[in-house]
Write a structure and sequence with these properties.
A two-stranded parallel ribbon has the order 1-2. The termini are far apart. Helix 2 links the parallel strand 1 and strand 2. The protein is mostly helical. The longest helix has 16 residues. It is 50% helix and 5% strand.
């Protein structure tokens, strides 16, 4: 049976933690690295509400099993990222000024979780529940809008070529 997605990630995390890759990086210490498991998808259906949460729950179950034999404390939560989001913001991620990918991933996961007992009213509870189901792409777009990050010029030029009358 061929392992797919979550099982591949778990297998590769196990290899990292068991020093399988010392031939290509002899100095890494699995106790001092942070692992950001990411599944890159190309289908917008994976940006649907709740998909990341469902896959994260499955990943968490598999990581718990791995945790019986390996120290998984530095493994972050699973993030499903649409390739379009990576392409759209690649310059910002590359420059690493305002937008470090690992920081946006960390912020995303912190934004997903909340204590329902701390909600002041039903409206806040409903809003936080909705936010806990959002996709990474939605969160990233909102984050870049907040810091007023402009769309890269090469993307705008491409859109102008595709739809000259619309802009």
């Amino acid at each position: 049976m061929q392992k797919k997605a979550i099982h591949q990630l778990i297998e590769n995390i196990k290899r990292i933690l068991e020093l399988h890759y010392t031939e290509c990086d002899a100095d890494y210490n699995p106790n001092f690295i942070r692992i950001f498991p990411i599944i890159v998808v190309h289908d917008r259906q994976f940006d649907s509400i709740g998909v990341n949460k469902l896959l994260s729950m499955w990943f968490s179950d598999e990581l718990t099993v791995l945790g019986r034999t390996c120290n998984v404390k530095n493994v972050q939560e699973l993030t499903v990222i649409n390739i379009d989001t990576l392409l759209l913001y690649q310059e910002a991620f590359k420059n690493r000024s305002d937008c470090k990918l690992e920081q946006i991933i960390t912020d995303y996961h912190q934004n997903l979780y909340f204590d329902p007992r701390r909600c002041r009213n039903q409206r806040e509870f409903d809003m936080r529940t909705k936010n806990s189901l959002r996709s990474f792409s939605d969160f990233a777009h909102a984050t870049f809008d907040k810091i007023n990050l402009k769309m890269p010029s090469y993307i705008m030029n491409y859109v102008r070529e595709l739809f000259p009358q619309s802009l």
